[in-house]
């Protein structure tokens, strides 16, 4: 079912359409909300508030973006408002990325493709566990871009629009997040990436 049909069913009060949306997007919304507000319980409230807004605002959906992007935009706006009330944003430590990029902004050393090193299910599980441990340590903006791009699979342009940042800033944040994760994984796995 496409976005238009799903929205029409929502507008008609179809509970099945709403349940389908929740099942499809709840995990990603919760991950992103928690990365913004920094607290699981508060993130759950933000997600619940987002779903209420989706139900109440289905008539306002104009189809200028995908339904997924519209829902994530609602979440980001609500999570940011909540985060502002809950805490201050932490500054980015640019020194942490020294050596990852050259003066033109490209990788100083090309990353080794991860898929060649993670070919065994046990290693893949350890890898996923290490990534999930590192993710909360990333600055909020990097965490959000990484989640939206690499976990949720949103296109770069939609992520930039959703987070109200430039496309260039989105690319920098994504590279910095990946660089941080790579550095932590290399340390945790003994630097055996070559």
Automatic annotation (TrEMBL):
Residues 21-88 form the RNA polymerase sigma-70 region domain. InterPro entries: RNA_pol_sigma-70-like, RNA_pol_sigma-70_dom, RNA_pol_sigma70_r2, RNA_pol_sigma70_r4_t2, RNA_pol_sigma_r2, RNA_pol_sigma_r3/r4-like, WH-like_DNA-bd_sf. The keyword Disulfide bond does not apply. Keywords: Sigma factor, Transcription, Transcription regulation. Belongs to the sigma-70 factor family. ECF subfamily. One of its GO terms (biological process) is DNA-templated transcription initiation. This is Sigma-70 family RNA polymerase sigma factor.
């Amino acid at each position: 079912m496409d976005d238009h049909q799903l929205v029409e069913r929502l507008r008609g009060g179809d509970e099945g359409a709403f349940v389908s949306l929740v099942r499809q997007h709840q995990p990603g919304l919760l991950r992103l909300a928690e990365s913004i507000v920094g607290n699981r319980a508060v993130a759950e409230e933000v997600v619940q508030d987002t779903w209420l807004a989706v139900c109440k605002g289905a008539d306002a959906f104009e189809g200028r973006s995908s339904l997924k992007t519209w829902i994530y935009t609602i979440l980001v706006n609500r999570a940011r408002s909540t985060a502002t009330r809950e805490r201050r944003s932490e500054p980015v430590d640019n020194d942490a990325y020294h050596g990852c990029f050259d003066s033109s902004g490209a990788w100083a050393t090309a990353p080794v493709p991860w898929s060649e090193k993670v070919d065994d299910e046990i290693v893949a599980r350890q890898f996923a566990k290490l990534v999930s441990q590192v993710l909360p340590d990333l600055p909020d903006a990097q965490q959000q871009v990484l989640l939206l791009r690499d976990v949720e699979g949103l296109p770069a342009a939609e992520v930039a629009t959703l987070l109200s940042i430039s496309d260039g800033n989105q690319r920098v944040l994504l590279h910095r997040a990946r660089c941080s994760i790579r550095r932590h994984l290399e340390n945790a796995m003994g630097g055996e990436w070559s």
